[in-house]
Amino acid sequence: MSTRGADVTKPYADIGVIGGSGFYSFLEEVTEVSVDTPYGAPSDSLFLGELAGRRVAFLPRHGRGHKVPPHRINYRANLWALRSVGVRQVLGPCAVGGLRPEHGPGTLLVPDQLVDRTKARAQTFFDGEPLPDGTTPNVVHVSFADPYCADGRRAVLKAARGRGWEPVDGGTMVVVEGPRFSTRAESRMHSAAGWSVVGMTGHPEAVLARELELCYTSMALVTDLDAGTETGEGVSHTEVLRVFGENVGRLRTVLSDAIGALPATMDRDCPCTRALDGWEPGIRLP
Ligand SMILES: [Zn+2]
Fold first, then answer.
1. Which amino acids does the record list as binding substrate (predicted)?
2. Residue 269 catalytic?
């Protein structure tokens, strides 16, 4: 196994997956690693292992047993922890509501745009607060016009097609604060704006990855049609879990194929790798 110059005495992975807790059973020879960060504790330990011939770190977004709600996730600690074990490319599978009738349950959408409608989440590492090591982050404004990695998106789209699961290529994910689902009026507003899916965790995950010069790609599995697009009872958690359960197998397969198709970390040549060019961060990235 090539460790690509990493310190072999340390746990190492160059691809990160932030997802539901059903995913790490896929990894081979899993090592559980507890990581602390200057921004506090991540949602859980990292689970490091091999998948599709690559070194992968898996982080259960909501912690084991799904204990952390979307608005309480320490997104900064999660991304920092992944980078600190060597991760440079992140895949973020998540469950979302469809905002268009044609994006029904079971649709896999690989968004190319994002709208932030969260309210109270720390969404930058560069907030002027000193870190425990005495350094203080400077003010940094990263480009976020294209929030997702083009290479990562290509890998996921190709992987899905290769498994006969025709994905939706592009679309806008609106991220709401939660933990409640949307009202019908909110949902109609999101649909009328032309957005495709609604989720609760896609932000600030994507922007924090960008601030650490990590590639980030979202894989959005539609588990329900949002309240404004149907006349029934609205979204129920039971239904979300049922549809997720039905699709988790093929989602893992596509995830594994996508991991195998990602460029080697040393070969990355996307703009994600230059997000901090021209800025003096003031802190040392892990
Ligand atoms: Zn990238």
1. 200, 224-226
2. no
Structurally, how many domains does the chain consist of? 1
From 169, 226, 267, 269, the catalytic residue: 226
> Looking up tokens 């893992």, which residue turns up?
252
How many whole angstroms separate alpha carbon 42 and alpha carbon 63? 9
Residue 224 is a catalytic residue: yes
Q: What is the pLDDT of residue 98?
A: 94
How far is the CA of 167 from the CAs of 103, 139, 163, 220, 250, in angstroms?
10, 38, 10, 10, 12
Domain membership flag for residue 2: no
Give the structural domain span for 188. 15-273
Evaluate the CA torsion angle 188, 189, 194, 200 in order and state its sign: negative
DSSP 166: -
pLDDT of residue 161: 98
CATH number, domain containing residue 214: 3.40.50.1580
Q: Known binding site: residues?
A: 21, 61-62, 200-201, 224-226
Reported in sequence order, the residue ranges of 99-244 that DSSP labels E, i.e. its strands, are: 108-110, 113-117, 168-169, 172-176, 197-199, 215-225
In a domain, 8, yes or no: no
One-letter amino acid of 22: G
CB 205, CB 59: distance < 8 Å: no
Going 114 to 119 to 123 to 128, the CA torsion angle's sign is positive
Beta strands 28-33 and 46-51, pairing class: antiparallel
pLDDT at position 183: 92
pLDDT for 248: 87
Listed as ranges, residues in the chain with pLDDT below 50 are 1-6, 8
